[in-house]
Structures are given as C-alpha cells and as structure tokens.
Amino acid sequence: MEPKTVQVMVGTAVDIVGQSGNPRTITGFQTHNAPVLLSSGDRCELSNEEFITLSDVLEDIVIVKDNPEYKRDAKK
User: Fold this and answer.
1) 51, 46, 45: which is closest to 69 by C-alpha?
2) Is the pTM of this model over 0.70?
3) How many helices and strands (H and E) does the chain possess?
C-alpha cells in the first residue's frame, strides 16, 4: 500500500433519508486534495469515479483502489 493523492469534495452534511435516486450527501462543497481535515458537521465524498473506496464511510484512513470501469470510459 502507498499513499495516493485523491480529490475529495468537503461540504456541509445533508440528511438524505427517504430521497430517491443517488442524491448528494453534502451541500456547499469545495474540492480539495486529500488528506483533508474535517470540522464538525462536515462530510466528505470522492470528487470523481477514478477510485473506489473499500469502506462506505470516509473517516480516518480510507483505502482506495483504481476503478477498472473508469479507465475504460476514459479511453472512449
């Protein structure tokens, strides 16, 4: 394992319980390169689909792997 620079969106957490589709869990976000420090009430998401996280929650140390589907879409 080695550290990777990943772009993440950091913004205010939004409650999405009961919303259909794939709604965003944050609002008023800014894009940063990881690692980032979150304040109380903030939430973090990956900014693109280049990587896949191995956990659902982005806290502490997050392990990511390359998304094989992203590579195929980029070549088109």
Assistant:
1) 51
2) no
3) 1, 5
Place of tokens 């903030």: 42
Closest CA to 41 of 31, 56, 26: 26
Contact 29, 9 (CB under 8 A): yes
CA distances, 11 to each of 21, 28, 66 (Å): 20, 5, 24
What's residue 72's pLDDT? 56
Question: Which is more confidently placed, 17 or 27?
Answer: 27
The predicted pLDDT at position 48 comes to 87
What dihedral do alpha carbons 7, 42, 59, 55 form, nearest 10°?
Answer: -70
In this structure, the strands spanning 7-13 and 42-46 are antiparallel
pLDDT at 60: 77
* pLDDT score at 73: 46
